[in-house]
Amino acid sequence: MGNKIRVAIIDPHPIFRDGVVCTLAGQADIEIVDQGASADDAIRIAADSKPDVLVLDTSVRGGGMNAIETIARECPTVKTLILTMSADQENVCNALKWGARGYLLKGTSGSELVTTVRSLSQGECYVSPNLAASLLMRPSIASVETEKRVDRLSDLTPREEQVLSILKEGHSNKEIGKKLDLSEKTIKHHLTRILQKLQVRNRVEAALLASDRASSIVSS
């Protein structure tokens, strides 16, 4: 087996944190490298331990949202996964905008948590399907900069538009590949080009932009 996925857990509640540790540490390909209970702990651990994935509750003392932005800026190789009680759309959008790579609610199953950690470690992004659906149904999330990015959708090739259209439905790279009869590696290449052209950080932002354009077309 190759290198293990190195994970750090930041949560203010010791009992819940212990449960997350047990769930992840029980996987042969995952190693828990550190734990903490505050935003300061998250920033310190990200800098010192450099985990592949840092699981963070945004309710931690010192401001979890601030920690996301600092970690994204100072430790770009660390993928932050939010695991919290808050399903507020604004919190989800802000977490993703400031650099989080995934967002799960604390009612998630252990198997979904494990799968998400593995996905983030491979460079993918993930948001709980129910949260992603509610975000895509929002009437508008457009700012001036977002509107400019929506315009960049016209720069996509027909194939890239196909990939983005299927991505918007919440499918994984493997599922998109099956639908288009393409390899997962080819889909990853297309997604990289899509993110570059749209100037967004992750697949969730790209899907939201595509949804914004669809909404504007329907309403026009």
Tally of alpha and pi helices: 11
Q: What pattern of helices and strands is seen along the backbone?
A: EHEHEHEHEHEHHHHHH
The third-level CATH topology of the largest domain is Rossmann fold
What is the CATH class name of the largest domain? Alpha Beta
Q: Which shape, going by the Cα principal axes?
A: globular
- Could you tell me how far the N terminus lies from the C terminus, measured between alpha carbons in angstroms? 54 Å
InterPro entries: CheY-like_superfamily, EvgA-like, NreC/VraR/RcsB-like_REC, Sig_transdc_resp-reg_C-effctor, Sig_transdc_resp-reg_receiver, Tscrpt_reg_LuxR_C
Protein name: DNA-binding response regulator
Modified residues (4-aspartylphosphate): 57
Domain Response regulatory: 6-121
Summarize the entry for a quick read.
With 220 residues, this protein is of the alpha/beta class.
Structure notes:
This protein has 220 residues and is an alpha/beta fold. It has two domains: 5-128, 3-Layer(aba) Sandwich (Rossmann fold), CATH 3.40.50; 139-219, Orthogonal Bundle (Arc Repressor Mutant, subunit A). Helices cover 55% and strands 13% of the residues. It is built from eleven helices and six strands. It has a six-stranded parallel sheet, sandwiched between helices. Strand 4 (79-84), helix 4 (89-97) and strand 5 form a beta-alpha-beta unit. Helix 7 (144-151) crosses helix 11, helix 8 (158-167) crosses helix 9 and helix 8 crosses helix 10 (184-198). The termini are far apart.
